[in-house]
Write a structure and sequence with these properties.
With about 150 residues, this protein is of the alpha+beta class. It is built from seven helices and four strands; from the N terminus they run βααβααβααβα. It binds uridine-5'-diphosphate.
Length: about 150
Amino acid sequence: VAELSSKDTPISVKPDGVQRRYVGQIIQRFEKRGFKLVGLKMLQASDGLLSQHYRELVKKPFYPNLVDYMTSGPVVAMVWEGLNVVQSSRRMVGPTNPAEAPAGTVRGDLSLHVSRNVVHASDSVEGAEREIKLWFEVVEASAFFWIYVCL
Ligand code: UDP
């Protein structure tokens, strides 16, 4: 990821979206809108990463199911850049519950149930910055570790 700013936001294809072969289609929606893909990786999310990512939700009754869902396969984590990308991408993704998501939104078009809602997008600039650091700078930290070990 080149540079953090309020012009960047994380968007992830969750395990159901990967399993259902929606990665290309979801990327295409954001590219068509005019946003620029500036970071992408596929990874298996750990319980630790998820407890930080969803730190406001760890006490919720649905949290154990959420972790099972988010660890059921790989996630495609991305960073997108562009004008008002945090707000606009959230609108393109639609409400958390697909039952309330209008047609034309990712969740409204591709999902039915709140516990299988295909995609993640941040809901605030602060959240976006925190999540980009969490999902992408872990790799950089481990790279420094290996450089240290090799030296
Ligand atoms: N979720 C769920 N049941 C609920 C509420 C949320 O399974 O009743 C899951 C759902 O996958 C959602 C995620 O928890 O996307 C995070 O919830 P949040 O309220 O942060 O919604 P989001 O920001 O993803 O729209």
